[in-house]
Specification:
This protein has 13 helices and no strands. The protein is an all-alpha fold. The protein has a domain at about 215-360. The longest helix has about 45 residues, at about 155-195.
C-alpha cells in the first residue's frame, strides 16, 4: 500500500456511536408514574366533588338497606319469593314509620305555638317595678334596672328595643329548622334508594367482600363485622329509643300533659344521641307530684321510671350481641361518632372503631420476624 492510499484511508470518515446518558433515559420513566398518580388523584377529587352533595343520602341508604335486610328477607319468603314486591312493601312501611311521627310532631308544634299565641297578649301583660337594689349589681345593674323599669311601664317598647338582640337567635333557629327540613327530605330519599338496593343485596354484599379482600387479607370478615355493627346499633340505639318514645307518648296523652308530642319527640332524639330520656322524664315525674293526685302521681311515676331505664338495661345486651369487639369500644364509637358527625356518625363511629380493633388485635399478637 502506497503512502497516498494510507492517507486516503486515514481520511475515510468513521461512524461515531454516541450513547445518551442513563439519567436522560430514566427521567421520562420516572415522570410517568407521577403523572399517572396525579391524573388518578384529579379524577378521584372530581368524583368526590360531584358526589359530595349525595354522600349523606348514600350512607343512609346503605345503613337502612343493611339494617332492614332481615325484615325484607322475611317478607320476601312470606310472599313466596317475590323480592321486588317485598322491597316495595318495606319501602312503604319505612316511609309510613317516618312520615307519621313527623306529621304528629309538626301538628303538635303548631298547636303549641297557637296556644302560646292565644295566651300571650302584650296589652294585658304587666310587670312589677324593679327593686332599687338592682342598681347596685355590678356590671349589669344599671342597664338591667333601666330595661326592667321600661318593661314595667311599656312592654311593647321594651320588646322593640330588645328585638335587635333577638334577631341573631331567630336567624339561628330558622337556619336550624331549614337544615332539619333538608335532612328529613334526604332521609326520605335514602329510604327510597334503600328499596332499590334490597333485591340486589346478595350481589352487592359479594362485591363488597371481594373488594375488601383485595384491600386486606381478611377483608370479607371486616365487611361482615360492619354489617353486624350496623344491625346492632340500629336495634340497640334507634330501636330502643323508638320503643321508649312509643311507650312514653300514650302516657303523656292520657294524662293530658301539654306539649306531649314535643316531649315524646325529645325522648326519641335524646335517646338516639345518647343523652338519655331521663332529662325529660325526671322533671315530668317531679312535676306530676305537684299537679296530680297522689294516686295518679304514684302510678305515673311507677310507669315512667322503668320506661326511662329501658335503655340502660337493654342497650348493652343488644349492642354487644354477636360481636367480638368489646362493648366499651362500641359505646365509644357511638358517642364519639354522634358528637363528631351527628346521626350519621352514630353508625360510622362504631363501625370504624370496630374495624380498627379487629385489625389492631391480630397485628399486636402476630409474632415478630427475627
Amino acid at each position: 500500500m502506497t503512502s497516498d492510499d494510507s492517507q486516503a484511508a486515514d481520511k475515510t470518515p468513521v461512524a461515531v456511536t454516541t450513547h445518551a446518558p442513563a439519567r436522560d433515559l430514566a427521567a421520562p420513566l420516572a415522570i410517568q408514574p407521577v403523572l399517572r398518580i396525579a391524573a388518578l388523584g384529579l379524577l378521584l377529587y372530581a368524583c368526590v366533588i360531584l358526589l359530595l352533595p349525595f354522600i349523606s343520602i348514600m350512607i343512609w341508604s346503605v345503613v337502612l338497606a343493611v339494617a332492614l335486610y332481615p325484615v325484607f328477607k322475611w317478607i320476601s319468603v312470606g310472599l313466596g319469593g317475590r323480592p321486588r314486591l317485598a322491597a316495595v312493601l318495606v319501602t312503604m312501611l319505612g316511609l309510613v314509620v317516618v312520615i307519621g311521627p313527623a306529621t304528629w310532631l309538626t301538628l303538635g308544634l303548631i298547636e303549641s305555638v297557637r296556644a302560646i299565641y292565644d295566651h300571650f297578649d302584650l296589652s294585658k301583660l304587666s310587670l312589677p317595678a324593679p327593686p332599687a337594689g338592682v342598681k347596685t349589681w355590678p356590671l349589669i345593674g344599671e342597664p338591667l334596672y333601666q330595661f326592667w323599669e321600661l318593661a314595667s311601664t311599656n312592654v311593647t317598647t321594651a320588646l322593640t328595643e330588645l328585638a335587635p338582640y333577638l334577631t341573631p337567635v331567630g336567624s339561628t333557629l330558622l337556619s336550624f329548622a331549614g337544615g332539619a327540613g333538608i335532612g328529613f327530605l334526604k332521609f326520605l330519599g335514602a329510604i327510597v334508594i334503600a328499596g332499590f338496593l334490597f333485591p340486589a343485596g346478595p350481589k352487592l354484599a359479594e362485591a363488597a367482600r371481594q373488594a375488601a379482600h383485595r384491600l386486606a387479607p381478611h377483608g370479607e370478615t371486616l365487611v361482615e363485622l360492619a354489617a353486624a355493627t350496623i344491625r346492632n346499633i340500629s336495634v340497640g340505639v334507634v330501636g330502643i329509643s323508638a320503643l321508649q318514645a312509643l311507650l312514653v307518648g300514650p302516657a303523656l296523652v292520657i294524662t293530658h300533659i301539654p306539649g306531649s308530642s314535643l316531649l315524646t319527640s325529645a325522648v326519641l332524639i335524646l335517646g338516639i344521641i345518647q343523652v338519655g330520656p331521663s332529662v325529660v322524664l325526671l322533671p315530668l315525674v317531679i312535676w306530676s307530684w305537684f299537679v296530680m293526685e297522689p294516686a295518679k302521681a304514684l302510678l305515673f311515676t311507677c310507669y315512667l321510671v322503668p320506661v326511662g331505664l329501658l335503655d340502660t338495661a337493654l342497650r348493652p345486651l343488644v349492642m354487644g350481641r354477636g360481636l367480638a369487639t368489646p362493648m366499651p369500644v362500641i359505646l365509644l364509637g357511638v358517642l364519639g361518632g354522634t358528637i363528631a358527625a351527628g346521626i350519621t356518625g352514630l353508625f360510622l363511629g362504631p363501625i370504624v372503631l370496630a374495624v380498627i380493633w379487629e385489625l389492631l388485635v391480630p397485628w399486636l399478637h402476630e409474632p415478630q420476624a427475627e
